[in-house]
Write a structure and sequence with these properties.
alpha/beta; about 325 residues; Arginase, Chain A; single chain; about 30% helix; globular; eight-stranded parallel sheet; 10 helices
Length: about 325
């Protein structure tokens, strides 16, 4: 008998793409890490809006990423971590009042289940509610922020919460040990003077892009490892750390950034740190070329999974 026009077997349907094909699940009983999409942007960028579409693009491009990386990591981190994809936080782009509590709740679900959140934004504003969630479990939390911008601008009134003020608010709220926290890779131009001084006034360690280039990645990594050894580290990686030649699809591109090889080498050099959260943000698909930025972001997330595998027990 032919099948009914109105009935279909479950095999007739395909699930939407998850990150690297891992199962969608919010059951974290057997998981050491979990993927979470945060499709939020403030919608106030003067030129580029679109990071709310980042999680979907990264999931799609992650189909190109393979789980083994010899000779450095010749094992499957997805299997080691019992990785699952929790889907997306229930946010409303442009609405901080609704979205921040939703992001904090979604990240808290992962953190207090004993798993490491590996999130994909979204613009840089998604980091503050995540820090709030992590601080509830780790009161000695430190930040490792790799970005073309410090995101530590003053911002008051209607500009109090946006991508540029994330780490100013985090400092004011006491979410981080800023004296042991790093901003790495900041470079110009910017829209106001004394931004770097403002960042340092909040206690952060700032290694601008020019100093990173002059000192070299190995020397900077040595300082980072010595400072952060044994501490719970929130790793925040903004995709505009890369040069626009390899990551054009970001909110605020700035020339003179890292090549793909340099950026991935910097990440690989963090092996052994106690990574308790990974936050990869600022992929803007409407401004991407052939999905290359989303593909690179998915590769960054794979490197984050390896770092979690290599982290010492907390």
């Amino acid at each position: 008998m032919p099948p009914s026009r109105h009935a279909a077997d479950a095999t007739a349907f395909a699930a939407p793409p998850s990150f690297m094909g891992v199962p969608f699940s919010r059951d974290l009983a057997k998981s050491k890490a979990a993927i979470l999409g945060i499709p939020f942007d403030c919608g106030t960028h003067p030129v580029r809006i679109g990071s709310r579409l980042g999680p979907q693009a990264i999931r799609e491009q992650s189909a190109l990423v393979r789980p083994y990386e010899p000779p450095l990591q010749d094992y499957n981190p997805i299997e080691r971590l019992g990785l699952v994809d929790c889907g997306n936080a229930r946010v409303v782009p442009g609405n901080v009042d609704v979205s921040y509590p939703a992001i904090e709740e979604a990240v808290s679900h992962i953190v207090f289940a004993g798993a490491v959140p590996v999130t994909m934004g979204g613009d840089g504003a998604v980091t503050l509610p995540q820090l709030r969630a992590l601080h509830r479990k780790h009161d000695d939390l430190v930040l490792l922020h790799i970005d073309a911008h410090t995101d530590t601008y003053p911002g008051e009134g209607r500009d109090r919460y946006n991508t540029a003020t994330t780490f100013t608010r985090a400092s004011e709220e006491g979410l981080l040990d800023t004296r042991s926290s790093f901003h790495i890779g900041a470079r110009g131009p910017v829209y106001m003077p004394e931004v770097f001084e403002h960042t340092r006034q909040h206690g952060y360690r700032l290694i601008p892009g020019v100093d990173l280039a002059a000192r070299g990645i190995p020397a900077v990594l040595e300082e980072v490892r010595q400072t952060l050894a044994g501490r719970p580290v929130y790793l925040c990686f903004d995709m505009d750390f890369f040069d626009p030649s390899c990551a054009p699809g970001v909110c605020t591109p700035a020339w003179g950034g890292a090549s793909a090889r340099e950026g991935l080498a910097l990440l690989q050099g963090l092996a052994g740190l106690r990574i308790v959260a990974c936050d990869v943000n600022t992929v803007s698909p409407p401004h991407d070329v052939g999905g290359m930025t989303a593909f690179l972001a998915a590769t960054v997330m794979l490197e984050c999974l390896f770092l979690i595998c290599q982290a010492p027990a907390g």
